[in-house]
Structures are given as structure tokens and as C-alpha cells.
Design a protein that fits this description.
Rossmann fold, 13 strands, 2 domains, 29% strand, six-stranded mixed sheet, 31% helix, binds magnesium ion, alpha/beta, binds adenosine-5'-triphosphate
Length: 275
Amino acid sequence: MRGRRGPPTLALPTRVRETRVGAKRGKVFWFFSSEKNFFVVFRLLLEISSLEAGYGSVQVLWGVDLQMSPGIACLIGANGVGKTTLLRTLSGLLPARAGTIRFCGESLEALRADEILARGVAHVPEGRRLFASLSVEDNLLMGAYQTRSGAKRGLARAYDLFPRLKERRRQDAATLSGGEQQMCAIARGLMSEPRLLLIDELSLGLAPRLVDELAASLRGLPTLGTSVLLVEQDVATALDLAAEGFVLDRGVVTLSGPASALATDARVREAYLGI
Ligand SMILES: Nc1ncnc2c1ncn2[C@@H]1O[C@H](COP(=O)(O)OP(=O)(O)OP(=O)(O)O)[C@@H](O)[C@H]1O
Ligand SMILES: [Mg+2]
């Protein structure tokens, strides 16, 4: 086990690797699927087309189109535009009314939440949703759905990534600070060894120093095989952490591109960075 500094040492079994192929040397991503006993090859991690979703008579997503490569991406947008709704639809908590979601080349839009989790998409919900009267470790174990060895590996990785959780592993989640609760929620999301972690509002209610600490931990996840789609109010932090970004406005993606380009885009600066 490593100390507090340095990258985590454990590699995920589902690690996504990158290769360039063809005359144009286009990027292709691949990993070995032990369930299928095949190499799975894909160009985009996540490909959402014309996705619609809502609650009862309220339609929220009006045809979302989004293409994400492996790595860290952020989704930004004003309050109430449908960011949480999009994450809930991706993880199967809310049914898609129309459109398609392809993840590592496989369709997700008709699958249940547990089937989507089994395919490698985990969700850290807005507000963290920990079990207050369970210990940190029991909260983490709630996120593991597979084998005992998977759970053991997951705990080791969680404590490697967030050593503070190890110190507090027997403590009830209710007694953790806000930042530690967020670490616990993220670590719980990682327990299933996802290829994509959806995080809703990373920095909510946290001091800037803690947000920086969390962001530093997230930065290393892609090299361990986990990509991140981050919904974040702190747009400057989000664009700094992410390689690509998407702007959601009233249920559609209105802007997308490299995060560095969005950070200098006049529309983004005016609407979301207050510059
Ligand atoms: N369970 C629900 N039933 C009915 N309407 C809902 C429900 N949840 C959300 N909505 C509505 O859907 C719209 C989008 O909500 P959503 O939570 O996806 O926005 P958001 O972009 O995540 O906002 P925020 O930045 O405030 O978290 C809002 O108008 C909201 O009132
Ligand atoms: Mg939200």
C-alpha cells in the first residue's frame, strides 16, 4: 500500500487502452472483456443521440447529442437545465423516452440500472446519499456488487486513493465532514470498477482546498481505467480538470469541445465564468 503521496498502485482489470490505426492514424480504444473473452474495440466511450427524458408530463431532455472519448469530461449548465436528469438517464434511474445511448459500442438505453452498472457505468448522485448509520467501510461495500475478491480489491483501491477514508473506516458516515462524505461517495462509486463514473456536483458545499484535493484524486482515474463525466457548478475547476466539455442548455447540448477551447469561448466565459 502506498502512502499519502504518489499515484495509486492498483490497476483496474478493465483498463481502457488507446491505439492509433488506419491511414489517418485515428484513435481507437480497447479493453479485454473477461465476461466475453474478447477484446472490445470502440472509437467513442459514450455516444448519445437525440436523447429525451423527463418526469411525468414534464419533459427535461429534448434531444441530447453528446460524444465523449475516454478520459475526463465535464457537463456544465445553469440550474434546472437537466444535468442531473441526463446523468440519471445514463445510469438507468430514469427511462429514456427516445434516442440512443451507446457505451463502449453497446446500447444502454433499454437496460435497467443494475444492467448498466454491470456494463461499467457507476453514478455518484447529487447530495452523496450515503447510509448515515453505516460505517465508511459498509458504505463502500454497498457499492461492490460482484465477488468478494472484487470487494477486497475495491476497498484497497478506495483507501489508496483516499487514505483519510482508511483512517475513518469504522466511523459512521454521518460523522464524516462534507469533504470526507464526498470522498466516500466517490469511492463507493468506484467499488464496482466502472469504466465510466458519473459524478453529480463534486464541489457542492466544499471548501476550495478540499475541491482541489478531490480533483487531484480524480485526475489519476483515467490511467486506472475509469473515465469520468463530471457535472459541476464550479465551471473553472471543471474545465481545468476535464479534457473535453459539454454545455447543456434547456435540455440540449449547445456547445461542446476541448475544455481548453470552452474555457476561452466568449459565450462560456460570459454565461458561466462571469468574465
Ligand atoms: N422528480 C422530478 N419530478 C418532476 N420534475 C423534476 C424532477 N426532478 C427534476 N425535475 C425538473 O427537471 C428539470 C431539470 O432538473 P435537473 O435536476 O435535471 O436540473 P440540473 O441541471 O441538475 O439543475 P441543478 O444545477 O439545480 O442541479 C427542473 O425543471 C426540475 O424542476
Ligand atoms: Mg443537478
